[in-house]
Amino acid sequence: MNTLKNIELAFISDYKNSEKYRSSFNDLASKVFGINFEPWYRAGFWNEMYVCYSFADGGTVVSNVSANMMDLTLGGEIKKAVQIGTVMTHPDYRGRGLSLKLMNIVLSEYTSKCDFIYLFANESAYGFYPGFGFGEVRESSFSFEPESCSGEAALNWRKLDIKDGKDLEILKRLAAGRAPVSAKLGVTKDSHLIMFYCLNFYSDDIYYIPRADTAVICRIETGALCIYDVLFENARYAASVLSAAIKNGGARKAVFMFTPDLFVSGLKGVCEEKDYKLFIRPRGQNFPFDFTFPRLSHA
Known about the structure:
Layout: E1 10-13, H1 19-33, H2 38-42, E2 50-57, E3 60-74, E4 77-89, H3 98-110, E5 116-121, E6 135-137, E7 142-144, E8 158-159, H4 165-176, E9 185-188, H5 191-200, E10 206-209, E11 214-221, E12 224-231, H6 238-249, E13 254-256, E14 277-281
Parallel strand pairs: 4-5, 12-13
Antiparallel strand pairs: 1-2, 2-3, 3-4, 3-9, 5-14, 6-14, 7-13, 8-10, 10-11, 11-12
């Protein structure tokens, strides 16, 4: 029996600068997902593009749905998009429809302000989102094994140390001014998410190629070079950057966590089951057949 059923909860939003609520949000995120947003906030990267919508019991955040605003490039056209993420409820407050209420609030707020709304859901939530008008869209997986990895001799890279002020400024500049990583499906205005991932998960996996003024976020996984993102202000060196990354990374195979049409012409993706699904609202959006969303744009 849920003895908390009749407790009155307060609706709060956009409270990132409230230490009380932000700290409670971080406690809930740590409990549910094992992540903490505080270093991201303290570094100045939690900006107006990421907004929390929550219910609070007194000073305690007990349920949340967040909205991430960004631009998507689809076949050369720029689309305004909102990604829903950090959907969570404290175990003691589940079963009261709090996520449903917050979802309706967020959808009411953003539906008229963007071209579409999307999210990534794990298996436990597959049945939740279609009721809000979301439809599943299948993504592809992309990998590449070049016949040779000669690269360009001048496109050597060095590891960025984001604890170093100058290196951090390079990363911040490239993230803020990035060009889309794909002409088919790319994301811009997502520097807040890129910096979240770089601070929390990939701080030791960021490499800078000076001649191309490009940062590559990658690591070796199961013998392949997994390329999570490539940050540049123009795509002039894209193909050479790939050759240099494979050569410098010491791998014979590259696995792309984004759609790599700018890097390998004509590469076909493989439709594989993943541990999450992409849902888009409204249904029937004209997405490319062969694509994957940039992994570092996932909220």
